[in-house]
Amino acid sequence: MASLRIREAKEGDCADILRLVRELAEYEKLSDQVTISEEALRADGFGENPFYHCLVAEILPAPGELQGQGIGSKIIKRVAEVALDKGCSQFRLAVLDWNKRAMDLYKALGAQDLTEAEGWHSFRFEGEAMREMAGR
Fold this sequence. Notes:
mainly alpha, 6 helices, N-acetyltransferase activity, Diverse_Substrate_AcTransf, GNAT_dom
């Protein structure tokens, strides 16, 4: 079984965080959407008023497959602990429609699928649309 340690991210983790973001985007076939730099991650997450909070899961794998060892559940449970400690009433996860394994995990842990339950759809403004709205 893999050994798992979950800790608060440090500024020095930004290069690895960006690498993982890029690997995830590649897995999700969304590599073209990763436009952030290591410097932006550092400024946005470790400045005076951070825009995000990040945990790092350090996994020392045992031989064989990592899936099915409860690592995802442990990470999500830790996120819930941090959210409650910070006074949050909820946290949200985004998942692509083809990633049934992740959706099944989230539901098994008690998450509501807001698309099913309330009809919510997620929208994003970026690039030219943002500049046009802002008159820039």
